[in-house]
Amino acid sequence: MSATLIAVALSLVSAGAYAAAAVAQSRLAGRTEPSTGVLRLLGRGAWWSAVGLNAGGALLHVAALNYGPLTLVQPLGALTLVAAVPLGARAAGRRVGRTEWRGTVLTLLGLGALLLTAGGSGPHETLTLPEALGVGAATMAVVAGLSRPGARPGLRHAAASGITSGVASALTQTLTVAVTDHSGGPLFSWRLLTVALLVSAFAMGGLLLSQTAYRGGLGAPLAVVTLANPVAAAAIGLALLGERLQGGPVSLVLALLGTAAAVRGVILLSRAQAHGGTDPGEAAAAPGPVADPLPSRVVIGSPRRAESTPLGAEPLAVRGEPLAVRAEPLAVRAGARPHA
């Protein structure tokens, strides 16, 4: 079996493990208060199940990086979202919708086009110590900017999670190639120790950021993570590791078309999951509750007492319920002022 096929097979199993971990994290986030700290998460079995699935996916991903370049392995990470569709639907007790199937097909077609353009040779180049430190510093600056307080924290945390995970993959490839290199160099060096520390920090940071992102749901945050991860890793591979797309200009056009198809598929999947797996058009056209034409269900009431309200009565501002007026009897005597 060629190195490319081994990398693809390992990436497929890794995507399945990551998808199961994402579903587990999303369900845990839905049952967890936003103020829950990391220490309380450590005491929950569901958290450790998600950690174990992520760890298994990471180990398979590392093995795939040993056989294929970043431009080949990282785009296959989009299969995580494809695998999460049936898993999430089964966990929610529903069927996979038409929009989800369309998104899955587009994502698979786009990935197929990208696989045709990716380089098939195994990785050989590694990051130097200054390059690794520069990548780590730039990543921490971007993550700090995305994690600032503000609107839409779920999507920003998801983007930060995808970037940190992609950078961790690129650094992991450097570590794997350096360790398995049989040139006789030292097994332990400052460069490898620094890269190992960066990998650990970014991997754990990506896991915690994704847990925060999934508090608002699984669909859109997982789509952002899925897109940001290969973009960050492929940028490092093309800029610093000497990886190239094979096939010339025609291959570049095919890669752009494949990227557009995959992005469209991921967007459809995220929209479908945001609507609970139903077609957004069908959800919008679904009949809502029928309005009651009876005047007794009209929303009434104002800050000022109406002139027609009997003295001593208490008008009730009722929304959707029959009007109920409670009046108190008036004690009227000659020459006496009425009172409530």
Put the structure in a nutshell.
Helices cover 64% and strands 1% of the residues.
Q: Number of helix segments? A: 12
Query: What is the mean pLDDT?
Result: 75
Largest sheet: 2 strands, antiparallel
- The value of Rg in angstroms is 29 Å
- Cα distance, first to last residue? 93 Å
**Secondary-structure element sequence?**
HHHHHHHHHHHHEE
What structural class should be given to the helix and strand makeup?
mainly alpha
| Residues in helices, as a percent range | 55-70%
Low-confidence stretches: 288-328, 330-334
Overview of the structural elements:
This protein has 340 residues and is mainly α. The chain has helices spanning 3-30, 38-41, 45-65, 70-73, 79-92, 98-117, 129-146, 153-180, 190-213, 219-240, 248-274, 280-285, and strands at residues 313-314, 326-327. It has a two-stranded antiparallel sheet with strand order 1-2.
